[in-house]
């Protein structure tokens, strides 16, 4: 019988976490898990985590008051003073001590994953991993109930919490793995124990904590290093740095991409503008037509990665084509929105790095009819370290080379983007730094006309979705 909330007891938490039950009944049944004392439900387990801004241990009493049946805390937090506050409580929950609550959460999730007969897919990469995750899940859902992580639940907290949602009814779990430092992908891989691992690409993202592009490649290929020998790997066969770095490991993989040597590739790619993309899918000796509702060459590559994963899991071509065809895109990720007067808005506000920006800009030109203007609005790209200035200047140059009519930039290094555009020939009266979302909306409205295209992209912290909302 797989592990299940409503059946799992406090005592069963102890062994996987290498913890100790220091108070309460080991037989108490837990109805779920929460890391937030504000919305914990009656009978759930409260897991106290230390974050950058908050320490969950400060909210243990609140969690108990709100109905927690058990709590997991760190040994260095538990002492006589804390015990005096908690133990007189009229309703004492089960209290489990562990060395490190973050590590214990991952260990418990790894145990939970092993209790379920489920096929796990793990996807990482500098760009495209979320869309690829959604495409894979869409395909697998054609046959079986599939769990996937929501939003940004792709880190050392979010991924374990996702796995802890596994139920007996799930046949698949599709997990995105993010990272901003070395060792993180390796740890996530050990927790998830994937049957199929995917690396979409290696690009300039989170470089601040990894030194250089080779450091990023080493961090991403921790997935290859840590997967079990029974796992299958899917790699971008057009990414030479990825393949070179992966060659350090004696593992087998299949490749996807546009090059002729790839196991899964596309030919006859046809750009349908805001209507999406179509192409001929080639897998060994087979060829079949695929239609995507989402535009952009980057989404063809994401689709190819999803196809490769699905083939590893013996999914039929019929369900692959249907799953891809049904995929309607994701808010904030190159989402095409039609405004009044034939104006097209491309919302790519969820995040940005040099690689994803380059891919997006390469697709923008194909979405606008000849004679119509392109307006580009960019926000700061975070975590670039020593290459922050040159990469923002290059972003500006790329905007100018696109033939952009009007360019707005916001953030600490906005002036670098604007200067890069002007250096590449863009008129200075059509390239401006803005200081707020409101100002950006106002300037866009003053420039956009019938048939124009507005493209908006920036790192998560820039919250440029507020600009999209202002235009909608």
Topology:
Layout: H1 10-17, E1 20-23, E2 33-34, E3 45-47, H2 60-65, E4 70-74, H3 80-86, E5 94-98, H4 101-114, E6 119-124, H5 129-140, E7 146-148, H6 158-163, E8 172-176, H7 184-192, E9 196-199, H8 213-220, H9 222-226, E10 232-236, H10 240-246, E11 253-257, E12 264-271, E13 277-283, E14 286-292, H11 297-312, H12 317-326, E15 335-338, E16 344-348, H13 354-364, E17 374-379, H14 388-401, E18 406-410, H15 414-423, E19 431-434, H16 437-447, E20 453-457, H17 465-471
Parallel strand pairs: 2-3, 3-4, 4-5, 6-8, 6-9, 7-8, 9-10, 10-11, 11-12, 16-20, 17-18, 17-20, 18-19
Antiparallel strand pairs: 1-5, 12-13, 13-14, 15-16
Helix pairs in contact: 4-7, 5-11, 5-12, 13-14, 14-15, 16-17
Overview of the molecule:
The chain has 472 residues and is an alpha/beta fold. The chain folds into three domains: 92 residues, 3-Layer(aba) Sandwich (Udp-n-acetylmuramoylalanyl-d-glutamate--2,6- Diaminopimelate Ligase, Chain: A, domain 1), CATH 3.40.1390; 211 residues, 3-Layer(aba) Sandwich (UDP-N-acetylmuramoyl-L-alanine:D-glutamate ligase), CATH 3.40.1190; 137 residues, Alpha-Beta Complex (Protein-Tyrosine Phosphatase, Chain A). 34% of the residues lie in helices and 21% in strands. The chain has 17 helices and 20 strands. The strands form three sheets. A nine-stranded mixed sheet has the order 7-8-6-9-10-11-12-13-14, with helices on both faces. A six-stranded mixed sheet has the order 15-16-20-17-18-19, sandwiched between helices. It has a five-stranded mixed sheet with strand order 1-5-4-3-2. The termini are far apart. The mean pLDDT is 91.
